[in-house]
Amino acid sequence: MKLFPAIDIIEGCAVRLVKGDYAQKTVYSKEPVSVAKGFAEAGATYLHLVDLEGAKNGGTPNLEIIREIVKESGLLVEVGGGIRSEETIQKYLEAGAFRVILGTAAVENPDFLKDMVSKYADKVAVGVDIKEGMVAVKGWTELSQESCFDFCEKLEKIGVKTIICTDISKDGLLAGTNLALYHQLSEKFRVNFVASGGVTTLADIEQLQKIGLYGTILGKALYTGNIDLKSAIELTKGERQ
Asked: How many CA atoms, within 13 angstroms, populate the side-chain half-sphere of residue 50?
């Protein structure tokens, strides 16, 4: 199972939110490049990077610092947050990202998603952010009319290979992840699922690995010290992640 340590960016700083609430923000570092390099030094291969300003308002306000993170860390960086046009996809890929994550655009513009998957294949993943069983959009500030399972079925038919699935109710609480949800998803669909939200302990990682998930995102638990990245990598078969 692949591990994706996470950096969420607002105004060039590495932050974490609680349940996606922008009013409940903790700044963990004003130097996200250093944070990314620290993950690399611990043995990470991948990085999950979200521009929270982009997610809420669109645009690429943190593009230059994301470019610097890719260059300086040497990590394989996937980027999400406000990616709603092909121009933005191209900007991030040209900045060195190995994969971009569509969220709001995938929900609101399925024809755009089809075109981008056709053109960029597995360089395009989709973030499915779930609140009360429905898919949330625009930085988790609004609910769509799409249920989680119906939407994932559509994504599979379109040809999406990787889905990053976040249970918003678990995010940032350090209270465990939604194992039942990920088990259901992995049983029902033939895509690569990445678990996100509430992964708090090495035991959580172990349980997700038993389900057979493609990957999991490690967020707040890394910043608080609840999970040691080196130990997590060792647990996931000791492979370079």
From this structure: 26
Residue pair 15/27 in contact (Cβ under 8 Å)? The answer is yes
- Structural domain contains residue 41: yes
The total number of structural domains in the chain stands at: 1
Q: Quick one: CA dihedral 9, 19, 133, 203, positive or negative?
A: positive
**Nearby residues of 17 by Cβ (< 8 Å), 6 or more positions away:** 8, 24, 25, 26, 52, 171, 172
pLDDT of res. 241:
43
In the annotation, is 129 catalytic? Answer: yes
Q: Of 8, 51, 171, 204, which one is the catalytic site residue? A: 8
The model's pTM is 0.91
Q: What are residue 47's DSSP bridge partners?
A: 77
Is residue 240 included in any domain, yes or no?
no
115 is catalytic: no
Which pLDDT score, from 0 to 100, does residue 172 have? 56
Domain CATH number, residue 141: 3.20.20.70
Select which of 51, 115, 122, 129 is catalytic. Answer: 129
Give the range of the structural domain holding residue 197, as residue numbers without chain letter.
2-235
Share of the chain above pLDDT 90, in %: 67
